[in-house]
Amino acid sequence: MPGKIFHLDFLFAIRQVEKVPARYLLFCCHLSSGKQEVIMNQNETTSTQKLAIAGVLTAAAVAGSLISVPVAGSKCAPVQHMVNILAAVTLGPAWGVGIAFCASLLRNLLGLGSLMAFPGSMVGALCCGLVYKKFHILSLTCLAEAIGTGFLGALAAYPVALYLMGIAPAGLFVYVVPFLISTVAGSILAFILITVLEKGGVMSQIKEA
Fold this sequence. Notes:
Layout: H1 2-19, H2 22-64, E1 69-71, E2 74-76, H3 78-90, H4 93-109, H5 117-135, H6 138-164, H7 176-199, H8 202-208
Antiparallel strand pairs: 1-2
Helix pairs in contact: 2-3, 2-4, 3-4, 3-5, 3-6, 3-7, 4-5, 5-6, 6-7
């Protein structure tokens, strides 16, 4: 009995569709495809805007590396850590790590940094990016950058210096203090800059883009 009722309902639905003029069905199909094209165009625009922001932040990190402090074979650049937090707030953790990698690569190619730029920037970018994605609190994001770079990044820099650069650091924690000083300075700059931009409504426009 239930199967028979379903069969009758199906036949009734087919008859109702047959009563709809073909031009209306074509219009609905065209409208649906149009919506899909709009969504695809919006996604392409968003990706292009994110790529443009990432390019600007990468350039800022590379240019900011001109202001660096050489310590035990490393070149501590506070601007890189500021860029990490800006990327975390505007783009997200994956973009932040990518920007840190590209900036570190360019710094090495241009002679503005060392191999320790990779752990010194990418670890902090990942930490602050994940924290902001989870909590959306700027102060916690700055703290995550400081801890990620000042401790985790500094520890990761030790084997890079020892095995890849041929440097014999004085100890496992030799880079903690210089990295911590650099990242704290960059975090403070980022906190001030983002706070000012948020009050001016600039950050909301960047995020919406």
